[in-house]
Write a structure and sequence with these properties.
heterodimer; A: mainly beta; seven-stranded antiparallel sheet; six-stranded antiparallel sheet; globular; B: alpha+beta; 1 helix
Chain lengths: 400, 62
C-alpha cells in the first residue's frame, strides 16, 4: 500500500477535473465547504421513526399489556405472536441523558407471577410501524433499492443479559418480507447499529405505496422454540414473527428489565447522530394516529340536527391516517353540552362518526370526521351551535 | 367483558350510516369506543374478527 504524507499543504487543486477520494476519510479538524455540499442521504428528516426518543405520551406513561396488542407511548405498541401473554409493565422513564442523549426511554419490565414462558410459536415484543407512502424513497422493487440503517440505544438488567431479535418486515401489498438480526444486550447503555441491506426480495418487491402499513420493526424479547431461526440480513418473503438462534427468554424472571430509546431509521449504510426533533414536530407526527380533545371545556362549532342532535367536525392539527375510532377516557362518562340560542343542553347519547375516505396523501382535510351528538331536546334544525366537551374525547387511527 | 352494539345515525344531508359501540367492563371501570366502519381501523378489524367467530352485536336502538 502506498502512503502519501503531506506536510504544510493548505491547498489541493487539480486543473483537469474533480478530485475523488475513494476510501473512508476522517477529518480530525473542522471541515469548511465553500461550495455546495451534496450528500447521498438527506440532511434533514433523516429519521423515518417518529417519537424515537419517547417524548410524546398522549395515552399516558404506564401500561400493562397481557394478550392483546397494547398501544404505548405514541408510535410504539406491543407485538404478540399466537396471542401470547406478554405479561409486562411498560413505562416511560427518565434515562441517563449524558449516556444516550435522550431525556426519556421505554422500560419493559417482566411481571411477577410467575411470568409466562413462550411455548412453541409464542412471541412477545414491541414494534414501530411506518406508512408505506413514506418509504417510497427506499426504491424497493428494483435494482436501485437503497440500504437503510437502524440505530438505537438499549440495555437490560443483569439477569436479562443475552441475545435478542430485531425483525424488520416490509409489506408489498400482498406479502410480507423479513430479515432477522441478533443483538447482544448488556447492562450498559449501548448504541446498536443494524445495517438492513437492500437485497433479496427487496430487489423485486416494492413497499406498498399507500397510507397503510409499509414496514414494521420488531424488537422480540422472547420467542417459542418453533419460531427460532438463524439470523439473516437478506430479505425473504417470510411473514412470521421469529426469534434468532440463542434468543433469550426475557420473561423467565420478574426482575428482568429492557430499556430502549434514541431509535432512528435512515437511508444509507452508516448511522448518523440521532436527529433530535422539537416536541412539536414529534407531537404532530403522533397526532396523525392518535389525537385528544381535552376535558377542559373545549368548544367545537357545528349546527343543530333535528330537535335533539348536532353535527360538528373537530379539527385535528394534521390529517389523521383514516377515520378514527372515538373513545372516552377510561372510567369517564359522556358529558357534553350543545350550546345554542336556548342555552346549554346535554347531548349525551353515544357519539357517532361518519366514515370518510382519504386519498394517497393521507386525507384532503384536517378534520377527524363528522361527529353526530344526540340526546338533546328542543333544538331548531339547522341553527349554528357548538358542543362543549366537559370530558375529553380520543381519536384513534393507528396503523396495524 | 366486551359488548358490541350497533348505532344508527344520519349525516348532515340526512343520509343514514352506522357505527358500532364497543363497551368494555373491567371491574368497576368501563370504557366506551365508537367504531367507524373503516376497514383500516384497528377496532373495526377487531370487531370483524369477533363477528367472524360467530358473534353478533346487539341491534341499534329504534
Amino acid at each position: 500500500m502506498a502512503v502519501l504524507k503531506l506536510n504544510n499543504v493548505t491547498t489541493i487543486t487539480e486543473s483537469s477535473g474533480a478530485i475523488t477520494i475513494t476510501p473512508n476519510t476522517t477529518a480530525s479538524g473542522n471541515l469548511t465547504v465553500s461550495g455546495d455540499l451534496v450528500p447521498s442521504t438527506p440532511l434533514s428528516h433523516r429519521n423515518m421513526v417518529y417519537n424515537g426518543g419517547m417524548k410524546v405520551a398522549q395515552r399516558g406513561t404506564s401500561f400493562s399489556p397481557t394478550t392483546e396488542v397494547t398501544y404505548l407511548m405514541d408510535g410504539w405498541r406491543t407485538a404478540h405472536g399466537n396471542i401470547y401473554n406478554f405479561d409486562t409493565t411498560i413505562t416511560r422513564v427518565a434515562t441517563g441523558f449524558n449516556e444516550t442523549g435522550q431525556t426519556y426511554c421505554m422500560k419493559v419490565e417482566a411481571d411477577a407471577g410467575p411470568p409466562t414462558a413462550p411455548a412453541t410459536s409464542d412471541n412477545g415484543g414491541i414494534s414501530h410501524i411506518f406508512e408505506g407512502q413514506d418509504l417510497q424513497h427506499l426504491q424497493y422493487g428494483g435494482s436501485n433499492a437503497k440500504d437503510i440503517v437502524l440505530s438505537f440505544w438499549a440495555k437490560v438488567s443483569t439477569n436479562a443479559v443475552g441475545t435478542y431479535t430485531v425483525q424488520p418486515r416490509f409489506y408489498d401489498g400482498s406479502t410480507y418480507h423479513s430479515q432477522y438480526h441478533a443483538i447482544s444486550l448488556t447492562t450498559t447503555w449501548t448504541q446498536y447499529e443494524i445495517l438492513i441491506p437492500a437485497n433479496g426480495s427487496a430487489l423485486t418487491s416494492a413497499i406498498t405505496n399507500t397510507n397503510t402499513k409499509g414496514l414494521e420493526i420488531f424488537w422480540f424479547l422472547c420467542a417459542g422454540v418453533d419460531d427460532i431461526v438463524s439470523a439473516t440480513s437478506t430479505w425473504n418473503d417470510i411473514t412470521g414473527y421469529r426469534g434468532v438462534t440463542g434468543q433469550t427468554n426475557f420473561l423467565d424472571s420478574a426482575d428482568n428489565e429492557f430499556y430502549l430509546t434514541g431509535v432512528q431509521l435512515e437511508l444509507g449504510s452508516n448511522a448518523t447522530p440521532f436527529e433530535h426533533r422539537t416536541f412539536q414536530d414529534d407531537l404532530l407526527s403522533c397526532q396523525r394516529y392518535f389525537y385528544v380533545i381535552g376535558s377542559n371545556r373545549h368548544y367545537i362549532a357545528g349546527r343543530t340536527s333535528g330537535s335533539s342532535g348536532m353535527h360538528c367536525a373537530p379539527t385535528c392539527p394534521v390529517p389523521m391516517n383514516h377515520t378514527p375510532a372515538i373513545g372516552l377516557a377510561t372510567g369517564k362518562s359522556r358529558n357534553y353540552d350543545c350550546i345554542n340560542q336556548n342555552g346549554a343542553t346535554g347531548v349525551n347519547s353515544a357519539i357517532a362518526i361518519e366514515t370518510y375516505s382519504t386519498d394517497i396523501t393521507g386525507g384532503t382535510q384536517n378534520t377527524v370526521g363528522n361527529l353526530h351528538f344526540t340526546g338533546g331536546s328542543g333544538f331548531t334544525d339547522g341553527r349554528v351551535c357548538c358542543v362543549r366537551t366537559n370530558e375529553g374525547i380520543t381519536f384513534e387511527s393507528e396503523l396495524s | 367483558m366486551v359488548k358490541y352494539k350497533l348505532l344508527n345515525s344520519i349525516n348532515e344531508d340526512k343520509h343514514p350510516y352506522q357505527n358500532v359501540i364497543k363497551t368494555t367492563e373491567n371491574g368497576d371501570v368501563v370504557t366506551e369506543i365508537t367504531i367507524p366502519f373503516d376497514e383500516r381501523n384497528i377496532y373495526y378489524k377487531e370487531y370483524l374478527k369477533w363477528v367472524a367467530e360467530g358473534n353478533t352485536a346487539e341491534p341499534a336502538d329504534e
